[in-house]
Amino acid sequence: MFPDLRKTPTDSMVSRVKKALDADVDSQSEVRKRRSLGYATTRGTWVRIEVKDLARMNGQGWGLEDAVVLEGVAMPAWLQGVSWIDHDLGVMWRADETELITDTPIKAGGTLKQNPNLSESWWEAFRGSMQALAAHTTTRTATPHLHPVTQERITTTIHKLFPAVDATVSEWRAAHADLAWANLTAPSCYFFDWEDWGIAPRGWDAANLWASSFAVPELAERVFEELQGDLNSRTGKLAQLYHCAEILSYPPGYADELVPLARENADRLLSDLRS
């Protein structure tokens, strides 16, 4: 069974990583997520440990190491890594040591409900990184939520709620693929968690961050303003509709704050895409 690292004992695995990377970690700095752990090291770096089901090892390599080619993107510098197979669990483990970034995630988890009041220099760095990322080419396929972004995925998600829409994607770009406020820092802008990056529809990242900002309408408007070139393209409108459809498909009680703007924008997008 694929381990949930929030509930799984990891002492032996962490010990293995410390030995392999010749690095001691500060246990008080631990950041524990479902499929990753993070620790500050005593030499002033960061170690991120990730687990992946062997069935999902698709030859793309590990996202953080592969992301070293992304020049112009504000992200922690990659230093070294190690990986190994655990046949008993049917998983592969990976540990990467990177530059330590002391700026904190804008919203570590859950729905952002207050405007973070980001500086103009933050928006400038964010915009520059987004432009640099989109300019890169890659053979990687984006895998948000562990599933590849394909035309079939786009069509299926949109057609569950909006079956009359032509959901054909004509433009594909390199994308972070998990761009949310948990993976962006302030006061300086850095992009975290690159395990899912790869090719996705144009505007995928922009639409995801825009939609995740619906509980703070003025922030959603600012995201749209900064990334309107991608969002106003036809593929960008499909990306917006996809993320609105996801929100509208959530069970009651899950991120209800996002629903009103998702419904309002879905109506606008449907009109635009039919014209």
Q: What is the count of β-strands?
A: 9
The fraction of residues assigned to DSSP E strands is 15-25%
* Main beta sheet strand tally, sense and closure: 5 strands, antiparallel
Order of helices and strands: HEEEHEEEHHEEEHHHHH
Q: Helix proportion of residues, in percent?
A: 25-40%
What is the name of the CATH topology of the largest domain?
Aminoglycoside 3'-phosphotransferase, Chain: A, domain 2
Distance between the termini: 48 Å
Oligomer: single chain
Q: Give the spatial strand order of the biggest sheet.
A: 1-2-3-5-4
Alpha-beta classification: alpha+beta
Mean pLDDT: 94
Class of the largest domain in CATH? Alpha Beta
**Domain module count:** 2
Morphology call: globular
What can you tell me about this protein's structure?
The chain is α+β, with helices and mostly antiparallel strands and 275 residues long. The chain has 2 domains: 11-101, 2-Layer Sandwich (Phosphorylase Kinase, domain 1); 105-274, Aminoglycoside 3'-phosphotransferase, Chain: A, domain 2. The protein has 9 helices and 9 strands. The strands form 3 sheets. A 5-stranded antiparallel beta sheet has the order 1-2-3-5-4, with helices on one face. A two-stranded antiparallel sheet has the order 6-8. A hairpin with a 4-residue loop joins strand 4 and strand 5 (91-99). Helix 5 (204-211) packs antiparallel against helix 6 (217-226), helix 5 (204-211) packs parallel to helix 8 and helix 8 (234-248) runs antiparallel to helix 9. 36% of the residues are buried. The model has no long low-confidence stretch (mean pLDDT 94).
